[in-house]
User: Fold this.
Amino acid sequence: MFAFVISVLYTLAGISAFIVFLIYGNYPTAVWAIITAIITAINGHLHWLKLRKVLNQWYERKELTPIYYIGFVCFTLGLMGTGYHSTIEIMLKKPMMPINQSEVTAIVWAFLTARGGLCVMFTIRSFSRQQADDEEPCIVQPTSNDSLNTVD
Assistant:
């Protein structure tokens, strides 16, 4: 439940930040904010299905793999964006104010995109393992016909 609530809050924050940064004219930060909102909405969707116990009806294990790759791509892009905007901030020493010229906000939202991608990857991995555990029995019970139970 906690992960679902956090995902919803990050999704709402991403959408709000997207609108605010579009108004202020900081377009790179707006793009990072909407990507964060989308990736955390995916994570929230998966947690919602798990809470309702219908994840197995919506997705099989093989169908979760492309979503895992989306998380990996967002994680990679977020790390690259964090590095890029950090380099620009260090080299050009841009001020934090006015908002439309700030690289610090882009660094924060690029990092949040990386975090969201990583969360999706771990969520998919966890749910895939749970589905695998549900499908395969851990212990095989011997039957009375097995030769293991007989003593010679």
Summary: Residues 89 and 103 are 6 Å apart (CA to CA). The mean pLDDT is 85. The helical segments are 2-24, 27-51, 55-58, 61-92, 104-135. Residues 1-55+64-128 form one domain.
